Amino acid sequence: MVGDVVVGNVPYNPAAKSGKSWKNVAQFSGITRKVPSSYPTIQNAVDAASPGDLILISEGVYLEEVTVTTPSITIRGVDRNKVVIDGQFQRGNGIMVVAADGVVIENMTARNATLNGFYWTGVKGFRGSYLTAHNNGDYGIYAFDSRNGVIEHSYASGSPDSGIYIGQCYPCKAILYDVVSEHNGLGYSGTNSGGELYLISSIWKNNIVGVAPNTLDRELLPPERETTIIGNLIYNNNNPKAPIAALEYPSFGNGILIAGGISNTIRKNVVINHENNGIVILPNLDENFWISHNNVVRDNIVYNSGRADIALVGPMSTGNCFSGNEYRTELPAFLEKWNGCDSFLRLPMGGDLSMMLGALGLMVQASDGNFPSGNYKEQPIPGPQMNMPNGSAAPVRPALTAFEDFNLDLDKISLPEETEKILKSIPRKPSSSTGAITLVKPRSLFPFFYHWLGFLLPFAIYICWTSVSLFDLKDRIDLDRNKKLSWVAAITLIPILSSGIYLLGGGSKYPNWFKRTLVLGGLIVFFLLLVYTGISLMNGIGTKTIG
Asked: Residue 119 and residue 95: Cα distance in Å, rounded?
């Protein structure tokens, strides 16, 4: 394999390396280069093309990996289902566009690549229309460090990371419209992306997690922010047979998961049948601890969630709000009432810790490679998908201003046509959630262990230390009334800390061995849990939770 390595944030023009100096163009050149009648391979036609040209590909299975460095070209298949780039599980990408602005890829299929189906990187202006990407080893349709783009009328399945990915861009100025993503680790992943980024009128189903914008230090431009998720159908994202890596396993069973994101808008979505949470906002841990702030969750229909239909997770956050949602269960209690979007005061500032600790248990479990995963090579093969209207005769226009050309109107966004059918076919079940006591799924020893020791044990310690301290105070005759009242007030108002101080240094009449065992035993358990967690993550999957 031969390639270039670019170090640092410097401009890169692969065309200049071969003596070419391309300029972007906004119009069709009038030249059509046909494959295979004029050029035996797609790569031959791409290499011969100039900006503004159309590469028109006839029916066939093309055993190649295409790299595009010429801007403003359109690569089009005559039939979406019969023009297939097949990587044979040997080649990295179906089509990879590198630093070439305005490239359009449409009306074809990419399958069986070891990395990605369709991939744009380092571009300004891109469009993917009527694409099918399935059984690829990393992402299906992938835009990285790229801005001003549209992915529409497309299908992605069978990828261990995400079916569709928009990452490391701000402002992205990108639109995902009328796409279907299923049988992936994540339906959608967006790491450190946002700013005029819209996921609209699309279907995310049968993945490990449906939609997962997230923040990580390992990529540039953190945090993830200002993504709008509106008018989507998101259901049944609990697929244990989907291909996943260890990093995706802790996000199992959630519809929309915001991990360390800021100022996202989640509106008018239908989110159904998730074993953990329908819509959940939580922090994410990488080199830094990224807390989710100022996210808006309004007017969604959410039901049949195992833990909570809407949930706020983590030790603290500010500005997240929930209003007008149709739901049955929430964590913590009174979440929407105390955190309304039209309310000046939003309480509580913290969220549910049990979900975070359960997910941590899944992360530690996955660090040893102990998690279920399907093989991306063996995921279901999709049936025929809708062809691009007018096919070969459709107008040709480079994608330099794809975002502006879309003419987005948020007031006209509607749910996918399949929504009514799904709403009728999936009845609302009586909730069986027991709130924060409910174990995170998939249920196994590790999430139970972390739920018990990390979440329930502190409550047990509080009850035990407090009751033992108060019983001891009641029977002490060496303290006057005022001193007893002072200790009672401290133990009541400053829980755990004051009772621990009292038992170890307040003159309690219990035997020293009893007091030390009672107080230090719980602290030692927490310390050992932290040490074990740190060692497991450093030796295993590291700090990345999702991506």
From this structure: 6
The DSSP code sequence of 315-375 is S--SS-EEES-B-S-EESTTHHHHT-TT-S----SS-BSHHHHHHHHHHHHHHTT-S----
Which of the pair, 461 or 205, is modelled with greater confidence? 205
Which backbone phi and psi does 336 adopt, to 5 degrees?
-70, -35
Is residue 213 within 8 A of residue 169, CB to CB? The reply is: no
Q: Which residue has the tokens 């046509």?
A: 417
User: Are 306 and 440 spatial neighbours (Cβ–Cβ below 8 Å)?
Assistant: no
Find, among 375, 389, 382, 380, the residue nearest to 84 by Cα: 382
Element (H, E) at 297: strand 296-298
Q: DSSP state, 378?
A: G
- The predicted structure's pLDDT at residue 1: 36
Q: Which helix (H) or strand (E) holds 535?
A: helix 512-539
Q: Identify which of 242, 306, 247, 271 has the alpha carbon closest to the alpha carbon of residue 443.
A: 306
Q: Which residues pair with 103 in a beta bridge?
A: 126
More confident residue, 518 or 163: 163
SS3 call for 528: helix
528 in any annotated domain: yes
* The pLDDT of residue 18 is above 60: no
DSSP letters, 119-176, are EEES-EEEEEEEEEEES-SSEEEEEES-EEEEEES-EEE--SSEEEEEESBSS--EEE
pLDDT in tens, 449-501: 888 888 888 888 899 989 999 998 988 888 888 888 999 999 999 988 999 89
29-66 confidence digits (pLDDT tens): 999 999 999 999 999 999 999 999 999 999 999 999 99
User: For all residues of the chain together, what is the average pLDDT?
Assistant: 91
Nearest residue to 138 via CA among 97, 99, 185: 185
Count Cβ atoms below 10 Å from residue 3 Cβ, excluding itself: 8
Assign 540 a pLDDT band (cuts: 50, 70, 90).
Answer: low
Residue 467 belongs to a domain: yes
> Could you tell me if residue 260 is inside a domain?
no
Distance CA(26)–CA(23), nearest Å, equals 10
For residue 196, the Cα-to-chain-centroid distance in whole angstroms is 18
Give me the domain span that covers residue 462. 440-539
For 286-321, what is each residue's pLDDT tens digit? 889 899 999 999 999 999 999 999 999 988 888 999
Point out the least confidently predicted range of 23-32, 167-176, 443-452. 443-452
**CB-based contact 125:402 (threshold 8 Å):** yes
Residue 201: helix, strand or coil by DSSP? coil
In degrees, to the nearest 5, what angle opens at C-alpha 231 toward C-alphas 226 and 233? 115
Q: Can you tell me which residue has the tokens 């099918």? A: 132
| pLDDT over 90, % of the chain | 69
Count CB atoms within 10 A of the CB of residue 349.
14
Is residue 281 in some structural domain? no
Q: Which residues make beta-bridge pairs with 214?
A: 191, 259
Total domain count, the chain: 1
